[in-house]
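Late entry, evening session. Most of the bench is empty. Finally got around to the prediction I had been postponing all week. Sequence below, unchanged from the version circulated by S.P.
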Amino acid sequence: LAVETKKADIAVGIFDSGKTDLILSQPLYTSSTAVWYRNQSLSHWAAESLTWGCHKGAVYCQQLSKMGFAHIVELPDFVTLPDYLIQGKIDAVLESYTTLLTSVKHPMNTLGQVELPSWAKPQQVRIAATQDFRALIDEIDVVLSRQSETSRLRSANPYHQVDIAALNYQNSGMQPIRYSAWNDAYPLFYRNRDGHHGGYLNDLLTLV
C-alpha cells in the first residue's frame, strides 16, 4: 500500500487483512465476495476440488487458504487472472463482486459464470492509515458512527441486487415464492375460457 511507503496519508477501500501496522476505520460498507467460474458446469463441482486463482496478498487468498483449499494459484496482479482462467490454468477466481463484474463485462472476457456462493465471506471496506494518523482515523470513526444503517452505501447495480436476492433466498431454506397479478392483463397474464391462467408471465413462472 502507498500508506506503508509514506506516499499517501490514507487509503480508501481497504479490507482487513490482519496487518497490525495499519489503523483501520469502522466499515464504510460491506463488499460481496464472488466467484468467476471458467465455465458454468464448474459451479456444480465441489469447491475444494477446483484450482483457484487470486491476487497475491489479497484477503481472498487468505480466505481460500483458511477454507483448506489445496489448489490455489496466487498471481501478482488481477489483470493476469482472466488470462489464466481463459487458458484453463485455473478453474475459478475469488474476488469482490464489483471487480469481477467489471472484468467479465470486458468484450474479451465473456466466458464462464459469476456467482455469489454462500460460503464466500463478505468483506468490510474501510479506510486505512499508519499510526501517525490515528487522530484522523478517530475523527472519521466519529463521523461514521453518526450515520444510521439506512444511510450506508448500497449497491445500485441491478445484477448485484438480483444475485443478493437469490443468495438470501437460498440461505432462507428455499421457501415458496408467491406472485400476484391481474387476471385481465392480456397477453401478459389472463384467465382463459377454461378457467386456467395463461400468458407470458404464466409461461415464465412455469419455467422458473
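Two things to note before I forget:
The longest helix spans residues 158-171.
The mean pLDDT is 83.
Will write this up properly tomorrow.
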